[in-house]
Automatic annotation (TrEMBL):
<feature type="domain" description="F-box">
    <location>
        <begin position="13"/>
        <end position="60"/>
    </location>
</feature>
<dbReference type="InterPro" id="IPR036047">
    <property type="entry name" value="F-box-like_dom_sf"/>
</dbReference>
<protein>
    <recommendedName>
        <fullName>F-box domain-containing protein</fullName>
    </recommendedName>
</protein>
<dbReference type="InterPro" id="IPR001810">
    <property type="entry name" value="F-box_dom"/>
</dbReference>
Length: 477
């Protein structure tokens, strides 16, 4: 007999099965949940011995969600979107689901997060125990009692005497994941019905930030995206715009001067019972738009909220033509409001010249205007800001050309010291001065889009039912 075959037969003679049951019972608790279930599936003997319960399957699911193909450990980096492949376990329906099927609380609270491998939850074993329910209950109680932070420290980090916050985090992270459920399970168990306060008035804070009603929850979703304006937020990717986007009046991040962060909301359509983005309901209002705002939405003023139906439901019930009509009306509400806003800003920027005239002689409008017109030797009357505001768009554009030329003569745009000072004092005026043409172009673009969808509402129907809008509203990204 060769030494090789001898070692094989030696291995065969000492399988787990050949050990006495007493020893098996001592070994099995040191398996992880995946190995425990696998062992229970090898034969009848282990199936009967281990007798896996729901908690063991949940434990296995929580191990599977940490595997790299489900996104692995997820670090909190607010600058990054969650990748599309990040999935989490729901411990009620026992499924691994994309992260969009959960709310923030279910994923981002420390005890609900995926644990790194070196943390307490990352190293957790199945702690299986033999015997009846009573024996298992006693074991669980003993485990809970022994699982203190001090015991864990002396076991895992015996040489560290003053624990750091990172170690405390490592002790806590991911330990409550067995209580995590998806949005649909929270709906089925009545969680949303209990937690949506339907008696809120204006000005009341709603701490869990969700709105809607028991049968139609509107849940703050996992995504915060930045959009340039409401028409883009409710019709993402519909009309790609290639020009420079106008700056917003208020900005909280310099690199987001032309964009605003919007919360997305998962909403459960009562018609088709699917969770969809709020945009699928064609409501040109939001519970709240900016992440920093508290939601202010008194639903008793919106009592017909439960009659809202998603795009697909409207198309199924009343036909695509009716859906097209509603979508065009929705688009027009958003686009026209934006055009009005841009017009208002274009006009309003001229007020600044009156202020400059009195405070900063260097940028005196009278001087700028006279110098620009000096070649024509026509010392016409200088139009006052109020007169310019009343002019037609074309006439205003021509006068803006004078201001633009003056700025360009100041050397590189915005590099001179006095000009820097001016911009520093009034950043919005800087964006107005440089973004004037962008604002005009954006308004024209939106008007052209409105003309297009009015001529052919099919564009919007196609977008919402089968195109990019369908993708976005199903939250399948
Ligand atoms: Zn579920
Ligand atoms: Zn529906």
């Amino acid at each position: 007999m060769s030494p090789c075959s001898k070692s094989i037969s030696h291995q065969e003679s000492t399988t787990l099965l050949s050990l006495p049951v007493d020893l098996q019972i001592l070994i099995i608790p040191y398996l992880d949940f995946t190995s425990l279930i696998s062992l229970a599936q090898t034969n009848h003997f282990f199936r009967d011995l281990i007798n896996p319960q729901r908690q063991h399957f949940v434990g296995r699911l929580l191990e599977i969600e940490c595997l790299p193909n489900n996104g692995g450990e997820v670090t909190l980096d607010l600058l990054k979107d969650f990748p599309t492949t990040v999935r989490y376990a729901c411990t009620r329906c026992l499924k691994i689901l994309p992260h969009t099927k959960f709310d923030n609380h279910a994923l981002l609270r420390l005890r609900f997060r995926k644990p790194p491998p070196e943390s307490r939850a990352g190293k957790q074993l199945c702690s299986w125990t033999s015997g009846d329910a009573k024996a298992q209950g006693l074991k669980r109680q003993a485990d809970l009692k022994n699982n203190t932070f001090e015991n864990w420290m002396s076991r895992e980090h015996p040489l560290i005497f003053s624990p750091t916050p990172e170690l405390r985090e490592s002790y806590k992270i991911g330990t409550c994941r067995h209580r995590r459920t998806c949005n649909e399970c929270k709906f089925q168990t009545g969680f949303w019905a209990r937690n949506i306060n339907i008696n809120l008035g204006w000005g009341h804070r709603n701490d869990n930030q969700d709105v809607g009603t028991a049968s139609m929850p509107i849940i703050k979703s996992r995504q915060v995206y930045t959009y340039h304006d409401p028409s883009q937020r409710f019709f993402p990717g519909l009309f790609p715009y290639t020009g420079e986007f106008p700056a917003r009046l208020r900005s909280y991040r310099v690199h987001h001067i032309d964009r605003e962060a919007w919360c997305l909301y998962s909403t459960r359509c009562p018609g088709c019972e699917r969770w969809q983005e709020f945009a699928a309901f064609r409501q040109p209002r939001m519970p709240k738009s900016r992440p920093q705002d508290a939601p202010r939405w008194n639903i008793s003023w919106n009592s017909n909220i439960e009659a809202w139906r998603c795009n697909s439901c409207v198309a199924a019930a009343y036909g695509e033509q009716e859906l097209g009509k509603q979508l065009v009306a929705f688009w027009k509400t958003l686009a026209e409001a934006q055009v009005r806003l841009l017009d208002y800003r274009l006009e309003n920027g001229w007020r600044q010249f009156g202020y400059l005239e009195n405070t900063n002689k260097e940028f005196s409008w009278t001087r700028v205007y006279r110098r620009a017109r000096v070649e024509s030797q026509l010392l016409r009357e200088v139009p006052s800001p109020l007169e310019i505001m009343k002019m037609s768009v074309e006439a205003r554009r021509e006068i803006y050309g004078i201001w633009k030329q003056f700025l360009q003569e100041q050397g590189e745009w915005g590099s001179g010291d006095s000009i820097k000072n001016l911009w520093f004092k009034n950043p919005w005026f800087k964006h107005w001065s440089y973004g004037y043409e962008a604002m005009e172009k954006r308004a024209e673009f939106l008007k052209a889009c409105t003309d297009r969808v009015e001529a052919d509402p099919g564009i919007l129907v196609e977008y919402a039912l089968r195109g990019a809008g369908y993708e976005a509203m199903q939250m399948s990204y």
